[in-house]
Amino acid sequence: MADDCFGHPRLAAIYDRLDPDRGDLDAYLCMAEEFGARRVLDVGCGTGVFASLLAGRGIEVVGVDPARASVEVARARPGGERVRWICGDATDLPPLRVDLVTMTANVAQAIVDPQAWDDTLRGAYEALRPGGRLVFETRDPARRAWEEWTREKSYCVTEIPGVGSVESWVQLVEVRRPLVTFRWTYVFAADGQTLTSDSTVRFRERGEVAKDLVAHGYVVEDVRDAPDRPGRELVFVTRRP
Ligand SMILES: C[S@@+](CC[C@H](N)C(=O)[O-])C[C@H]1O[C@@H](n2cnc3c(N)ncnc32)[C@H](O)[C@@H]1O
User: Fold this and answer.
1) What percent of the chain is helix, strand and coil (3-state, nearest 5)?
2) Whole-number Å distance between alpha carbons of 169 and 171
3) Whether the CB of 228 sits within 6 Å of ligand 1
4) pLDDT tens digits for 177-196?
5) Ligand 1 centroid – CA 6 distance (Å)
6) What Rg, from alpha-carbon coordinates, does the chain have?
7) Which residue from 138, 105, 148, 100 is spatially nearest to 225, judged by alpha carbons?
8) What is the residue with the minimal CA distance to atom 14 of ligand 1?
9) What is the mean pLDDT of residues 107-112?
10) Which residue, judged by its Cα, is nearest atom 4 of ligand 1?
11) Is the omega angle on the peptide bond into residue 178 within 30 degrees of 0, that is, cis?
């Protein structure tokens, strides 16, 4: 079951409007170029912002995400017809031989269940050609990002054309490391509807991620910083030998 912020049609429709600054994707565009990727699989593609950016550069892209409402937003995006969208996860892929698999915006942390994490790493590996790379980020637990997930720090009112103004904020629900649960609340001024979305994410230690990757046959080439969030993220650059 997808979290409501990705899977509820009314929330998926405003997801990009509530988070319009996607400077985080620049580093991934640079990596696609650095690795000369011509075919990319974007796992956890969400509303398809990154997959569409790649397709606009002439790259062949498959985007997969279990949240149907987000995949529908992705499909309807201008240029969306250039991407092959799949509603599902890394176990639902057709045979592929891509140069690069990506998981942007902390998708890795949204994959909480250990079996689903194993399935994702296995599915990505099978989708890669030998020599192809899997790149993804995960928040460094040492930075305790959840301490900033408060109403005070996140409250905002966003004016969305055709929707009206939407109040939104996040609140921490529970910290039971490695799991952290938080709740987004959305209030639509147009009709007064209030929707909430609960999410649980897993904070994995650097060594744990590296161990999981090696166990699945990957070579960990590098662990980089995210240029837009210095010191906060672990960006894994891995290769299928
Ligand atoms: C924070 S969003 C990021 C979406 C997109 N990558 C982006 O950059 O906008 C996390 C996404 O992970 C997806 N997700 C959750 N579990 C997943 C799984 N097992 N496999 C693939 N994607 C998953 C969610 O549905 C959601 O769209």
Assistant:
1) 35, 35, 30
2) 7
3) no
4) 999 999 999 999 999 999 99
5) 8
6) 17
7) 138
8) 44
9) 98
10) 46
11) yes
